Amino acid sequence: MIIGIVGKPNCGKSTFFKSVTLADVLIANYPFATIDPNKGFAHVSVPCADTDFHTQCNPRFGFCMDHIRFVPIEVIDVAGLVPGAHEGKGLGNKFLDDLNHADALIHVIDASGMTNERGEYTGKPEHDPLDDVLFLEEEINKWMYNILIKVWEKFARTSVQTHQPSARSIAKQMSAFDVTEDLAKELMRKLGLGEDLTKWSQDEIFGFIKAVRIATKPIIIAANKSDLPSSEENIKRLKERFPDYIIVPTAAEAELALREAHNHGFIKYIPGSSDFQIIKPLTDSQKKGLEYVRTSILQKFGSTGVQKLMNTIVFDFLKYIAIFPGGVNKLMDSEGRILPDCFLLKQGSTALDFANTIHTDLAQGFIRAIDVKTKKTLGKEHVLKNRDVIEIISSK
Fold this sequence. Notes:
single chain, alpha/beta, seven-stranded mixed β-sheet, five-stranded mixed β-sheet
């Protein structure tokens, strides 16, 4: 799973990326501060299964704080997008090529309206952030359309001449966009499109492309800089204008400050929390800054929104669940780590799917699975649920 972080320059995109990864990236108030895609690992959080066994886990990957398990996921922050990107303006081609690898996108917008349509910070709330939502989608739609329309006539004619099902032809042509034959068939049915691809109008082709983008590149909106005075009304308008979107108010700069203060030992802060604990003496300026975060963000919104957004996109948006491998007789691995692993699987995954995720040999030699919490034996088709702890019994 790869989550893409997208948006205009200066919307707080790089700050958001650093706040979830704490990677060293260039943060600056000018377009194209991010030239090459930054890749890193963010985390989603889930109540750790160790509480069910009255113990403390020792993760191999990620970490656990106060029995909240943080599981790593890959994120990519790509170059800022400007109008005309689908025509190659700015770093448009690079941006669009980079995001094609993502399973879902976080669109970071400046909810305060202080970043104009060209990605320039103005310091005044003069820009309407609602325009940014439409702008990004339109650029991606046009980019995908431009790629496909260049070869449409040829492959459409070939599909008709060879009597190949149109959905299969489309899937082959658009495999780079993760389009399957089943998806193409479903979208054609929903849009009422005919089997003869040569008879599709350009509007019908564009409509199909838009449907593909929605299905294969779902977008969740981070209404960033939510603590600024002009943001509150804009966020309200965003939710009213786009009721079908998930819109999460975020304050990435505050999240970054909290995580850095925690890492330096000044405070104890669990990402996603509504408060923090000061554990080392602070300067007056540090106290003032953290108190602003506490009163103006954490107490007002319940969190900075950053961790909430990461959890939302993985568990609610992409429909994943967290599964822990373990044993009925012991939860410890060969190196003495308790519940060392936690895997993210799609909702509806079975015990056999989980075995295959751990290792293909386990799946090939699958005998049975055991629910470690209940000690019940499970068959290969048993559907797993979030926070299950599963032991796989295999002949291999």
